[in-house]
Write a structure and sequence with these properties.
By secondary structure, the chain is mainly beta. It has a single domain, classed as Beta-galactosidase, Chain A, domain 5. It contains one helix and 27 strands. It has a nine-stranded antiparallel beta sheet with strand order 10-11-12-13-27-23-22-17-20, with no helix packed on it. The protein has a six-stranded antiparallel beta sheet with strand order 16-25-24-21-18-19, with no helix packed on it. The chain has a four-stranded antiparallel beta sheet with strand order 1-2-3-4, with no helix packed on it. β1 and β2 form a beta hairpin. The model has no long low-confidence stretch (mean pLDDT about 95).
């Protein structure tokens, strides 16, 4: 374990096994870096930086956006802070800038935890616990949450890793997304409907190059394999290199973002592949929203293979 007091993202915890190495950061419980055989496949950030573009962050108790930060749950209306003021949205939850604490650590695994207090706009207390591990099979995260409040709580979850194959541009990357539809979005990146993608420029059911396509897209109607796992793949057409992001059956959507709104060197340098349990604005629509009963524990797992 390394404890870098000068790091802008707080204490840093390193885990390593079989040539796989990951670094988790105290601020946000963030996945700051991940490499395999010394090759960085996560487009992370340095200890001198604040997480850019939500890189590596945990997005909870909701992923993506809530229109105007307003929603109603079980008959009561709530107003969240507008954390994306330019679009008048509440974005990416409440845990990504808080300090998580170490629960346990081994050479190849670390468990981090955060107590989310009830607050204006989200008056439920939760305990979030993320168990990270590396092995010859890659990186794995098991996320748990416990509702410690005395009433039902709305819940959604995602993560925000940016990935890239060294030496390969976004345009050259071959993308495979096992999805049958996409959510159409307005200028505020909020859902206005869904449409089938077969035969369209958003159809990546057969692997193909991204080209100059701009993606900040929620894919739905996703496929799972016989083991209940869904996977998105980034590949190099000129070799057998590929990155696989996998997720279990708790995840019903994939968000794919080609980083076109990031600035400087990060512009279209890597691709965010985000497994999501629910679509954008689910606190308002109720679509695939998880409802946690008092005392209930919920868990899900996802990971990365190279």
């Amino acid at each position: 374990m390394s404890a870098e007091s000068t790091a802008k993202s707080g204490v840093q915890w390193s885990i390593e096994a079989g040539g796989h190495r990951a670094v988790l950061a105290e601020v946000g419980g963030t996945l700051r870096s991940y490499s395999v055989g010394g090759v960085d496949i996560l487009d992370g950030f340095t200890t001198e930086e604040i997480s850019p573009g939500s890189a590596g962050q945990i997005l909870a108790p909701w992923p993506n956006r809530i229109r105007d930060g307003k929603y109603e749950f079980e008959g009561t209306a709530y107003q969240l802070a507008l954390t994306e003021p330019a679009r008048s949205n509440a974005i990416h939850g409440l845990v990504n800038w808080s300090r998580w604490r170490l629960v346990s650590q081994a050479a190849d695994a670390v468990t981090l935890e955060f107590d989310l207090p009830g607050q204006v706009g989200y008056p439920w207390s939760l305990v979030l616990r993320a168990h990270w591990s590396v092995s010859a099979d890659g990186l794995k995260c098991v996320q748990e949450v416990v509702n410690t409040a005395d009433t039902n709580a709305p819940w959604g979850y995602s993560v925000h890793p940016y990935l890239r194959l060294p030496g390969l541009t976004v345009d050259e990357t071959v993308l495979h997304v096992p999805a049958g539809s996409r959510i159409m979005a307005d200028s505020r990146l909020l859902p206005i409907g869904a449409t089938k993608i077969a035969g369209t420029e958003f159809d990546f059911t057969e692997p193909r190059r991204i080209g100059d396509l701009v993606l900040d897209t929620t894919f739905g109607d996703i496929d799972f394999d016989a083991d209940g796992i869904t996977s998105v793949t980034l590949a190099d057409a000129g070799s057998d290199r590929r990155i696989v992001v996998w997720a279990d059956g708790r995840f019903r959507y994939w968000q794919v973002f080609t980083a076109d709104t990031l600035h400087g060197e990060r512009f279209r340098r890597s691709i965010a592949v985000e497994p999501m349990t629910c679509p954008p604005d689910s606190f308002r629509t109720g679509r695939d929203l998880v409802v946690l009963a008092p005392g209930e524990t919920w868990s899900a797992s996802w990971g990365i293979r190279f």
